[in-house]
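Hi support team,

I'm opening this ticket because the web form for multi-chain structure prediction keeps timing out on my end. I have pasted the exact lines I submitted so you can reproduce it. The total is 796 residues across two entries, so I didn't expect it to be a heavy job. Is there a limit I'm missing, or should I split the entries? Thanks in advance, R.K.
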Amino acid sequence: MKSFEYNVYTHMYVGSDFYDQIPVELAKYGKNVLFIYGGGSIKRNGLYDKVISELGGFNVIELSGIEPNPRIEKVREGVEICKTHNIDVLLPVGGGSTVDTAKAIAAGAKYDGDAWDFFSRGPEHKAVGDSLPIVDVLTLAATGTEMNRNAVVSNLGTQEKYGLGGETLLPKASFLDPVNTFTVSKYQTAAGSADILSHLMENFFKRTTGADVQDFVNIALQKAVIKNAYIALVTPEDYDARANLLWASSLALGGIPAGGKPGAWTCHAIEHELSAFYDITHGVGLAIITPRFLNHIIKKDKTATAKIAEYARGVFDINEADDTLAALKGIQLQYETFKKWGIPMTLQEVGIDGKKLREMSEHAVKHGNLEHGDSFVSLTADDVEAILVDSLTESEFH
Amino acid sequence: MKSFEYNVYTHMYVGSDFYDQIPVELAKYGKNVLFIYGGGSIKRNGLYDKVISELGGFNVIELSGIEPNPRIEKVREGVEICKTHNIDVLLPVGGGSTVDTAKAIAAGAKYDGDAWDFFSRGPEHKAVGDSLPIVDVLTLAATGTEMNRNAVVSNLGTQEKYGLGGETLLPKASFLDPVNTFTVSKYQTAAGSADILSHLMENFFKRTTGADVQDFVNIALQKAVIKNAYIALVTPEDYDARANLLWASSLALGGIPAGGKPGAWTCHAIEHELSAFYDITHGVGLAIITPRFLNHIIKKDKTATAKIAEYARGVFDINEADDTLAALKGIQLQYETFKKWGIPMTLQEVGIDGKKLREMSEHAVKHGNLEHGDSFVSLTADDVEAILVDSLTESEFH
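Hello R.K., no limit was hit. The queue was backed up. Here is the completed structure from your submission:
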């Protein structure tokens, strides 16, 4: 394995009995709180009231209406509020989009220019410096943003969806109450679980050898996600299943699977173009792309096969000595897992036809540095286009 | 799973290229450094010089001679130095005993009474309050103290070996350079690896159900330890094997396997009596006791068998449908693993005869609260004595 640093100081509260710690965590930073949330779901399920009832001693300003695939417009609105009202700490209550919006606001609030500069790939790009502290209450197991330093935001005006990372963006505390995810729909539960698996696979498929701790833990988390996603889809109020999905989502991107295994992510780079062009659900896009990606690289680069076979044997207990056969069986089982979860597994089903595949492929290779970067396998625009063409309709892998 | 908090903010540096970060970490706390180490090994292998060469801008006082099973006398000596010289930060360079000594000194330096009060089970017992910060350089994969809030110290005068825990005792930064463990002897490599496995098993064998993330990660870490201990024993300078053992040792006690799974530890309570009475190597004592403990509880409490079978199938890939048979096969394979590592697997081989078994059993039940506490299986002094009698000579499990 390569040298690495691990420094994840978020105070994680996992369980239903920690609401009284929210004011304790917030009070470390000040009195002026920006309470950020999405739509009405936290009002319908009572979480809004539960959190508000803990905020008696604070000056609370609200910013609502955060959408999935969070938009830069909302970030700008939040930055403005922070500057006007001297906000001390951000309190996003919601899923990954809400927390990611808070991260972008946190950075923007301490910056004089436009917050999109942090995301932009152009000459106006700026690194994140100081930022406001974040304390979050999570309502969806998916992105892992609650325990890392990254965020993703879309600019629909320019059809761009980019990530940013910053040393100061790690949340100070995250509250994971499994009960808050009981009402997550089957579709979002499946999409979120696919997102977690994708994060784990992006970290697993690297060229670094000898990182057994990282890779064995990675496989373990994938097994936990697959087992508990099935349970949560059948029994949405199964506390343990929801708790396992939440904790797995945090750990998947919490630094352990990635430590000592550098390298660019591929499927996320491709999916970000789908979301930027068509605003589809991120986890669904990932589920559609990943099996086709793995199948494509088996054909393109034989040196990738052994690692895919290792994944297949580890996650799906495949007992098959031949690497190529084991890998293909694993890809097929991954595809079937997503299908059984109810994920639409073709681009056509999510409203994407063949028209912009070339344009998105070129964007993905350019923005993700997929051809000349340090990703698992080098991909040209032709490769990505082939993966997307394969993704248009149903597939079988053998 | 039960509710839990996870808050592990130690900055972990894993690799050979982070020595220049030692002064950066120390400087956060002040100029006066207490450099704590054991005997001559860090002088022989060059680590002493390497660390000293980074400490140009600091006032460094040294405390050496820390022994395995660290002694309260050394703690008192360190506390005295801290108070006399206004020490700002502790820099233990060594294995678990050295870091644990530093933790006890860190607590004692901010306390007016005797440092043994933190360990004592008597009316003079004190909880750890404020403490000095610790930055450590680790030279042995074993105790996991580099990433948690606990320490164990012996009082040979009273034949007591007790642990302490304190919110403030988590090291601020830990430097894990695999190269520093190349010279660890086969015996200590095996004993350290057994210690890691024992920590994982103590966390695994709990009554809490539904903690899949914790338990799957636990199994993954055990597999990584078993695989890499074999490699390190054959090829002591295998960087990846040493890195995996170090990182697994930190994660084993770093909060993830234990989160949401409360309950007292059993084998450690028993082993601490062996070490307190006979000063044997901690990991060796654990390796000797654990298979006999598991074998004993299978007979005593049928409700424990399923969890032991889960362990056996997970760690040793045992394909056996019957729980009792799977469990026994797992115990036998665990015993054989320790033997293959070269660990003396009987109490007689480490110089312990039958004379004090009863006394140690009674101490273990009392100090570990094994009969009426929340351990995996309730044990009386008769149970512990039976486990120790079984441990005197060679065993077979079927």
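A quick check on our side: The first helix of chain B runs from residue 21 to 27. Let us know if the file doesn't open in your viewer.
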